[in-house]
Amino acid sequence: MTFQIGIGPNLRKSAYFNATVRDGVSSFSVYNHMLIPGNFGDPEAEYDRLINGVAMWDVAAQRQVQLEGPDAGKLAQLLTPRNLSNVRIGQGRYVPLCDHDGWVINDPVLLKLSDDCYWLSVADSDIHLWATAIAHERDLDIQVSEPDVSPLAVQGPKAVDVAAKLFGEQVRDFKYFGFVQMDLDGIPLVLARSGWSKQGGFELYLQDSSLGEALWDKVKEAGAEYGIGPGAPNDTERLESGLLSYGADMRLQTHRANPYEMGFGGLVDLEGHDFIGKAALAQTAAVGAKRQFIGVTINGTPTPPGHQVSLMSGSETVGYISEFAFSKRVGKTIGIGLINSDHVGADVPLSIFADGKNHAAQITSVPFI
Amino acid sequence: MTFQIGIGPNLRKSAYFNATVRDGVSSFSVYNHMLIPGNFGDPEAEYDRLINGVAMWDVAAQRQVQLEGPDAGKLAQLLTPRNLSNVRIGQGRYVPLCDHDGWVINDPVLLKLSDDCYWLSVADSDIHLWATAIAHERDLDIQVSEPDVSPLAVQGPKAVDVAAKLFGEQVRDFKYFGFVQMDLDGIPLVLARSGWSKQGGFELYLQDSSLGEALWDKVKEAGAEYGIGPGAPNDTERLESGLLSYGADMRLQTHRANPYEMGFGGLVDLEGHDFIGKAALAQTAAVGAKRQFIGVTINGTPTPPGHQVSLMSGSETVGYISEFAFSKRVGKTIGIGLINSDHVGADVPLSIFADGKNHAAQITSVPFI
Questions:
Q1: Which terminus has fewer CB within 10 Å in chain A: N or C?
Q2: Do B6 and A132 touch (CB under 8 A)?
Q3: Chain A residues whose beta carbon lies within 8 Å of the beta carbon of residue B306
């Protein structure tokens, strides 16, 4: 089943849109109301580049919600259960955001640019609206905006060589989530050691969308000797690495989950700062999570259906698998999802239904690799 | 330029997804994180059915934000500048929502189901997050949720015949935006006289997504004698009719606008109730809107680029055209957009740039038909 995407004015185009079209993008998805490349026509080669070489991805749809003003730090801290007191300028953090009932509403990376300016590099929900509402309702002295920032990811084991060639050898010493403001031949950007893969790499937060094609071409040129090629956030690699995807693995409106269920309860600080959802999460912590984040291996090679599937114990639904895919490296079909906690050690056979039949599933730890 | 859409678990599938695939959907867009059909392979026939016959559209992506509880009416009223004091149960209203600075953040239809229960049938932004934040920050006694509701639109001059056949002759007397809770052979739904076209019609708010295909087929069968066929919200018709599209015509993050600029300042009630954005809108009303919503006719038949274009006066940008298309009925290329107010009566030549050259544009009133 393949369908075209209707490209109309309601979908935003990325700063790299023209460059990706020129370089052969085949499919798009939509993320934060913006077109994001899905693949460039050769998914196997794109996976291999990510695992063994270097890939470049248009991830401009990972929009920035900028908090700017004297109360920027105060608002950032209110929005997340994670304690930010030790975050320094030039550091990033993975910061789940929760609503007042403790449900996850996004899981951005926070970048502290200055004491008065933070970015939330957001997953697919309108945190701009959320942060605006909280800021105004609490009379905070702050501006919430979406600045002209378009991340370009360079990912894979050779990404560091490409970054070193572009920005200098010192980038090899960057710590994970560390970032600096740079200028690349007149192109303003924030260079961060980060990205939505576990293969290592950098994200170039371009700060002038009119220079998208120029930046794309510089990265492409510098990466040529390392075999760089275009690609996109990779579902198989993210499953192997156990990386979460807000919207796929959980979403407030349809399959909500809290941080304890999703496996990052360790980031919740109930002892320190005040934050939205604190009372609800304290209660959850006291009674224990009712569901648990798991990996599964699945017998056979069922076709991924493009949506969640129920995780069954006989005829009983005991959880869901958000996404699964065959992993060449694992040598099996792997998936991630949530299961009712009382079924974790139950030692009963589990299965999913796909391609018209049941496939046995076995719980396993995450990451797979 | 055509591209595939990557259908993954991050994009929700509508209750009618299987039915639309079976009936030949060709392209999708994404709206409220859900796939929405774009066309079924024959745009001209789909337009003609809407104008002269009857069309059925999967508009389940028009999600409902449900406000339920003793403070439901209070919250609904806080969220919109429009005065809701005279809205009765069973009535709908077009209710722009604004942020604290008076910028439009969505323009839903509000449905009052009971004194304690309202739906906001929302355009493409996460009003669920916005309403949740406001409700909690103001300690309102209310639950915000997304219920299992999937609108199916039946639009066109013969839509009323199809609805009468399905639901009885009394539907011919329904007032615009009037609705009732119905049961169609065991399928629970809210039947409303509404829809995103000016050709007349109904929206069937299905209340059990497992019955999507059953409802689709009942409508298809009842409409057969009237030549019903599948379609989708139609860009050309909406331009002819001057219907707004949040996301295309304005969006908070990228091209924000206020109600006065967008031409619905008449809905703003500054004298009565308290609402979010009131102070900012009072100030805007006092000084006058800096921009004005306009229609334009455009010389020639330039290719719609799938994004906004600048409206130029010589080399000066004086506004933007959100979308344009050739209208058979008008006999011209038509568009809508915003222009700086001081250029409205300026009697200087305007133009847009498309297909590599300038095309003269003339301001005109909206709707075009």
A1: N
A2: no
A3: 7-9, 11, 13
Judge if A232 and A356 occupy the same domain.
Answer: no
Interchain pair B133, A130: CB under 8 A: yes
Do B310 and B175 fall within a single domain? no
CATH of the domain at A216: 3.30.1360.120
Q: Which amino acid is at A334?
A: I
Tell me whether residues B128 and A253 touch, CB distance under 8 A: yes
| Whether A209 contacts chain B with CB within 8 A | no
Average pLDDT of chain A is 97
CA dist B240 and B249 (Å) reads 14
Q: Hey, is A180 helix, strand or coil?
A: strand
Per-residue pLDDT tens over the stretch B7-63 = 999 999 999 999 999 999 999 999 999 999 999 999 999 999 999 999 999 999 999
Can you tell me the distance from the alpha carbon of A212 to that of A192, in angstroms, rounded to the nearest whole number? 17
Task: List the one residue out of A268, A276, A281 whose CA is nearest residue A100.
Answer: A276
Q: What is the pLDDT of residue A162?
A: 98
The domain of A355 spans 290-369
Confirm or reject contact between B210 and chain A (CB < 8 A).
no
Max Cα-Cα span within chain A: 62
ipTM of the complex in this document: 0.97
Instruction: Give which of B287, B294, B279, B282 is closest to B338, Cα–Cα.
Output: B294
Residues 6+ apart with CB under 8 A from B125: A33, A126, A129, B105, B106, B246, B247, B251, B252
In a domain, A217, yes or no: yes
Tens of pLDDT, residues A209-236: 999 999 999 999 999 999 999 999 999 9
> Nearest-CA distance from B246 to chain A in Å?
8
Residues of A in Cβ contact (< 8 Å) with B129? 99, 105, 125-127, 129-130, 133, 252
* Cβ contacts of A245 on chain B, cutoff 8 Å: 9-10
Same-domain pairing of A153 and A234: yes
Residues A125 and A171 in one domain: no
A146 interface with B at CB cutoff 8 Å = yes
Residues 6+ apart with CB under 8 A from B307: A9, A12, A13
Same domain, yes or no, for A203 and A330?
A: no
% chain A with pLDDT above 70: 100
Q: Are residues A334 and A189 in the same domain?
A: no
Is A253 within the bounds of a domain? no
Residues B77-124 pLDDT 10s: 999 999 999 999 999 999 999 999 999 999 999 999 999 999 999 999
Q: How many domains does chain B have?
A: 3
- Nearest chain B residue (CA) to A324: B9
Residue B291 contacts residue B340 (beta carbons within 8 Å): yes
Verify that B187 and B297 share a domain, yes or no: no
A12 found inside a domain: no
Taking CB atoms and an 8 Å cutoff, what residues of chain B touch A97? none
Chain A contacts of B6, Cβ < 8 Å? 27-29, 38-39
**A103 contacts on B by Cβ (under 8 Å):** none
B167 and B234 fall within a common domain? yes
Structural domain contains residue A314? yes
What is the reported pLDDT for B150? 98
Q: What is the pLDDT of residues B195-229, one digit of tens each?
A: 999 999 999 999 999 999 999 999 999 999 999 99
